[in-house]
Amino acid sequence: MSEIASRNIHHYLLEILEQHQARYRLVEHEASGKCEAVSEIRGTALGQGAKALVCKIKGNGVKMHVLAILAADQQADLSRLAQYFGGNKASLASPVEVDDLTACVFGAIPPFSFHPSLKLVADPLLFDRYEEIAFNAGLLEKSVILNTQDYLRIARPELVEFRREN
Questions:
Q1: Dist. CA 125–CA 157, nearest whole Å
Q2: Would you say the pTM of this structure is higher than 0.90?
Q3: Which residues form the YbaK/aminoacyl-tRNA synthetase-associated domain (predicted)?
Q4: Cα 20 to Cα 22: distance, rounded to the nearest angstrom
Q5: Which positions ≥6 away from 124 have C-beta within 8 Å?
């Protein structure tokens, strides 16, 4: 069992937020993996939701996993993500890979990477529109609403534009 799989991601995340004196609120709600339903329950805008996609990038000698974060009201352009890292193909990781890399079920993945083989990137639009972002905190029934600047300071994602242009 990997070190990440042995951790309780929810408690680990809250410890990190406390250690870094982050401004956040914890919201408990009914389990739902759907961004629209959860944002309504949380009382936040859909665009504040931090959607986490575990992606696999391949081609041109590149083979890596990326945790790609974008606003829940946007669609990912995985080919843009692949190009950014020099690959020629990007796809969503399998449920087994997601579990290995995040120790979370799909829909509960927070926008933080706790695995050394999972590179964290985020689309900058998520941070431009709202003072807080919202996300499931390792469990489908618990969410965190976190100050945007605190998120950027603590998680330090690489900012990459990979949302689909309308």
A1: 13
A2: yes
A3: 29-153
A4: 5
A5: 159, 161
Pairing type for strands 118-122 and 132-139 reads: unpaired
pLDDT tens-digit readout, 59-100: 999 999 999 999 999 999 999 999 999 999 999 999 999 999
89 neighbors 77 (Cβ within 8 angstroms): no
Contacts of 75 (CB under 8 A, 6+ apart): 163, 164
Torsion angles phi and psi, residue 97, rounded to 5: -65, -40
CA distance linking residue 100 with residue 151, whole number of Å? 24
Q: DSSP readout, 84-105?
A: HTT-SEEEEPPHHHHHHHHSS-
What would the two tokens of residue 137 be? Answer: 């905190």
Residue type at 166?
N
SS3 52: strand
